[in-house]
Amino acid sequence: MPPVIDFWQAKSTIYERFINRADVVLWESAWTFALQRCCSSVLLAASLELSEDELVSAVKRQGVPAVSRVVRYQEPQEYVINGALVLGRQD
C-alpha cells in the first residue's frame, strides 16, 4: 500500500504548491475572462473546432485583462491523506 500513499501525497503536494496557489488561480481567471470576451459570439459546438493556436491568437489581439476576482467553474481539487484510513494500518 505505501506506493499508493506516496502517489497521493505527491499529488496533494503538487496541487497545494503549484495548481491551487492564489497567483495561479488569478492567472487562470484572467485567461477565462479573456476567452469569454473574445469568444462571446462563438457557439459551443463551433468552439470545439477551434485550435489552441486560434484561441491564443484571438486572446493576444485583445490582451489578457488584469483581474482581481476569481472565476472558477468548479471548486479546486484538494487531496488529503489520512493515515488512519489506510487498510490494515493500526496506529
Structure description:
- The protein has helices at 2-19, 22-38, 44-47, 52-62.
- It is mostly helical and 91 residues long.
- It has one domain.
Q: Main attributes?
A:
4 helices; mainly alpha; 91 residues; elongated; single chain
Please give a quick description of this structure:
The chain is an all-alpha fold and about 90 residues long. About 55% of the residues lie in helices and about 0% in strands. Helix 2 crosses helix 4.
What is the ordering of alpha helices and beta strands?
HHHH
Helix count? 4
Q: Please state the structural category.
A: mainly alpha
Largest sheet: none
N-end to C-end Cα span: 15 Å
Question: How large, in whole angstroms, is the Cα Rg?
Answer: 19 Å
Taken from the alpha-carbon principal axes, the silhouette is elongated
Count up the domains.
Answer: 1
Overall helicity: 40-55%
Q: How many beta strands in the DSSP annotation?
A: 0
Sheet-strand content, in percent, reads under 5%
List unreliable stretches of 5+ residues. Answer: none
The whole-number mean of residue pLDDT values reads: 85
List strands and helices in order, with pairings.
Elements: H1 2-19, H2 22-38, H3 44-47, H4 52-62
